[in-house]
Amino acid sequence: MKIPSSIWTLLIGILLTLVSLWYGQNHGLLPTAASDEASLVDGLFNTMMIVSTGIFLLVEGILIYSAIRYRRRAGDNADGPPVHGNVPLEILWTAIPAVIVIGISVYSFDVYNEMGGFNPHAVHEAPMTPQAMRMPGAAIAATLSDTPPSTGSDRNQERADEAMQDPATAAVRNADQIPQLREAPGTGLVSPTIGPTPDKEGKPPAFVVNVTGLQYAWIFTYPETGVTSGELHVPIGREVQLNMTANDVIHAFWVPEFRLKQDVIPGRQSEIRFTPSKEGDYALICAELCGPYHGAMRTQVVVQKPQELEQWIQEQLVASTEELKQAVAMNPTDLSPNEFLTPYTSQMGIHSEMLHQLHK
Q: Which of 88, 137, 176, 220 is 20 to 30 A from 241, alpha carbon to alpha carbon?
């Protein structure tokens, strides 16, 4: 008995769907998820893998079938029949990708919103004057220059001033050499921000760290403690806020296990919030080409219990006090600044390249 082509099409469709669903959930391409936000990104990635696997198997299956079924037979030297196209088929294979792309776009925006990336209340727009509004291209011109487009408050500068109130942060940032650019919402540039998730809107973060990027290292300062470190230590299960900027060129904060990446820009105050969900040590990688030694700009993010984190902070304070006493007892007149500081900074994970940049 010959099975109708419609039945074959249905069976093949069911098989493709099952294979795509299985592989989309079991591809093993992502590292361990170590933050609450990771599940949102993983869901989006798995959805795209399901769709991509189905399309790949369908297209490649049709190509292989056609190459075998319609291959040239021995002794067949005749021309193939002229084919002028199939309008319904062309509409179908145009409409289906369009629907898929729109669906993934909507899903992506929802994930970005759930992670706290879309937060219109976090941007303080300053109204432009009536004269400026009547000028063609005034908003864009204001974006491309350092001239303030209005006399309103500058959220970027406010965040910079707030971070610089911490002495440890002020000691490592070149705020006097890199002017803070005014926020230009709408058509202009804004400081990259991933704020609180909707369920934490309006609540202060449990743990705040100021992050400074420079060629080719990360420096982490913990406000109100005086601790400066070359590693990032954060508590598990508590929302962390990182206030980030760069001293020289554009860097990018990226921890694959957190599924988060944020640009760190000179003259801009980037912000990112996340909640670590799994203890361990994770690699922090600069994901923006920042110079010839870009590949070496790596360090560790240590996620630990709150009590262990507090103990680590106390150890850093004690170590700093002891090193200061030793430094006072020594005579550094015959040593260069780098040579004198190397024994102390090496324990903090700060290398000579970082000292050279700070000295400059």
A: 176
